From TrEMBL, chain A:
One of its GO terms (cellular component) is endosome. One of its GO terms (molecular function) is GTPase activity. Belongs to the small GTPase superfamily. Rab family. It comes from Spinacia oleracea. Gene3D superfamilies: P-loop containing nucleotide triphosphate hydrolases. It is found in: Endomembrane system. Coiled coil: none annotated. CDD domains: Rab11_like. This is Ras-related protein RABA5d.
UniProtKB/TrEMBL annotation, chain B:
PANTHER family: TBC1 DOMAIN FAMILY MEMBER 15-LIKE ISOFORM X1, TBC1 DOMAIN FAMILY MEMBER GTPASE-ACTIVATING PROTEIN. It comes from Spinacia oleracea (Spinach). The lineage of its organism: Eukaryota, Viridiplantae, Streptophyta, Embryophyta, Tracheophyta. This is Rab GTPase-activating protein 22 isoform X3. Residues 131-151 are annotated as: Disordered. It comes from the Eukaryota.
């Protein structure tokens, strides 16, 4: 948690969006804690987790925002798209309506955040192959149509979860490093998303974590 | 003494049993029965006059000191939530109860006419109308009668309500799953019925995720579905503003800003720290305030907390 080499750190904000019960929270918990909860509950509002990976010897942190799927929450959740540089648009391969909604989620994302450097279409619940209603080809072709990465995952059996997140993070990284080379303003804009890193040191003195996890 | 303590503990464990495979994943309860402090069944019965008027002040003092014994929780909650006035008599209440049950049956029948699954012991998780309101007919068989109404506002209300029903279903299957109570489809359907009927009656709020967490304890505590409905309806009178959504905000955010104002005064350093973390939006408290700490504590402990709060914000 030292901020000595803070200049070398990257913090990317990534959002996970999609209809209710497609498995957004379990994708995140599988990636960040290698956990899957059979009894997970509907997400209320927004929650986030931070997960790090190393790229080219640099520590890259992803702050991943998990959102409630219900349309009624969009007023709130869309506010948190701001500054997102990556997005996972998730559907459930066994429920067509969740696939049909992807277009709407894309519009939502485009309206509220024009900064996303990497977007991935994710067909989750790959383990339920025998009751699938969206073929891989269909997923692929929708992804191609909108210029999205595509992957089918299973938060339950871990298939492709890490790969999906890391692919998004790597793409952001490479896109950012390209831009950083030739744009100072972009760099400045990005540093706005880095505020929380600086504050890590103070945390212990102020006892925030103890008040929440007692 | 030791014996007493152990026996009250096992007494407590008998309430709200958890599925064995979930024991490790649910928060541990810290609520303890305190002899002489917790509102017991005996004390509760002794708090009524001969005609049935309740000494509510005395009851509340006891609840503050040691909570409510789970065996009488449903009955106590009906008073805490304001379903019945403490000044009412036994006779008054049995009349009111009967009337309210009839009223609930009428509401249920009205909804059932539009969507026959309501009240059938089953519930929906898949859409029955499309985004533009056309019925989805993948299952041949009896359908809810189209109201044949020429009133477009009414038609719109029906369609919006039908659209939210599968959302309720998707959340019902994910509500308090570790509790044995929700292992049966019948009990899940009760929760679904109540939320669905509420969504019809209070169409401004309809259904918002989180209302399931508020409603679930009522279904467990009150065996009669109609009684549980009216408890939920009472709780929502106090909480519904939290769930009110506009195109730019959701009601609970007003509470977050109140919280921020308070913390700013009582602990400016903490406030400053939180400000730096999430721009002072107090987002971390969103869920806490929306579902009244249901997700932060065990089932037992959150009910105790609600009782101390006189259930919701008063």
């Amino acid at each position: 948690m030292s901020s000595d080499d803070e200049a070398e750190e990257y913090l990317f904000k990534i959002v996970i969006i999609g209809d209710s019960a497609v498995g957004k929270s379990n994708l995140l918990s599988r990636y960040s804690r290698n956990e899957f909860n059979m009894h997970s509950k509907a997400t209320i509002g927004v929650e986030f987790q931070t997960q790090s990976m190393e790229i080219e010897g640099k520590e890259v942190k992803a702050q991943i925002w998990d959102t409630a799927g219900q349309e009624r929450f969009r007023a709130v959740t869309s506010a948190y798209y701001r500054g997102a540089v990556g997005a996972l648009l998730v559907y459930d391969i066994t429920r067509r309506t969740t696939f049909d909604s992807i277009g709407r989620w894309l519009d939502e994302l485009t309206t509220h955040s024009d900064t996303t450097a990497a977007r991935m279409l994710v067909g989750n619940k790959k383990d339920l192959d025998d009751i699938r209603s969206i073929s891989i080809e269909e997923g692929k072709s929708l992804a191609e149509e909108h210029g999205l990465f595509f992957m089918e995952t299973s938060a339950k059996d871990s298939t492709n979860v890490k790969t999906a997140f890391e692919m998004v993070i790597k793409e952001i990284y490479s896109s950012v490093s390209r831009k950083v080379l030739n744009s100072d303003s972009y760099k400045a804009q990005l540093s706005l998303n880095r505020v929380s890193l600086v504050e890590d040191e103070k945390k212990q003195n102020q006892g925030l974590s103890s008040c929440c996890s007692r | 003494m030791m014996f007493m303590r152990r026996s009250t503990q096992s007494e407590l464990d008998a309430f709200y049993p958890v599925r064995p495979e979930c024991h490790d994943s649910v928060p541990k309860s810290r609520f303890k029965l305190k002899t002489g402090k917790t509102l017991s069944a005996r004390r509760w019965r002794a708090s009524f006059s001969e005609e049935g008027q309740l000494d509510i002040a005395k009851v509340l003092r006891r609840i503050q000191r040691g909570g409510v014994h789970p065996s009488i929780r449903g009955a106590v909650w009906e008073f805490l939530l304001g379903c019945y006035s403490p000044n009412s008599t036994f006779d008054d209440r049995s009349l009111i109860r009967q009337r309210r049950r009839e009223q609930y049956d009428e509401l249920k029948a009205e909804c059932q006419k539009m969507v026959p699954v309501i009240g059938s012991g089953k519930f929906l998780t898949t859409p029955i109308v499309t985004d533009d309101g056309q019925p989805i007919d993948d299952v041949p068989g009896p359908h809810g009668s189209q109201q044949g109404s020429s009133d477009p506002a009414f038609e719109k209300k029906v369609i919006q309500w039908k659209q939210v029903l599968p959302q309720i279903g998707l959340d019902v299957v994910r509500t308090d799953q570790p509790l044995m109570f929700y292992q049966t489809e019948t009990n899940q359907a009760k929760l679904w019925n109540i939320l669905s009927i509420y969504a019809w009656v209070d169409s401004d709020i309809s259904y918002v995720q989180g209302m399931n967490d508020i409603c679930s304890p009522m279904v467990i505590l009150l065996e009669n579905e109609a009684d549980a409905y009216w408890c939920f309806e009472r709780a929502m009178r106090r909480l519904r503003d939290n769930f009110k959504t506009t195109s730019t905000s959701i009601g609970v955010q007003a509470r977050l800003s109140t919280l921020s104002t308070i913390i700013k005064v009582v602990d400016p350093k903490l406030h400053q720290h939180l400000e730096e973390l999430d721009g002072g939006e107090y987002l971390f408290a969103f869920r806490m305030l929306m579902v009244l700490f249901r997700r932060e504590f065990s089932f037992m402990d959150s009910l105790y907390l609600w009782e101390l709060m006189k259930i919701g914000y008063s």
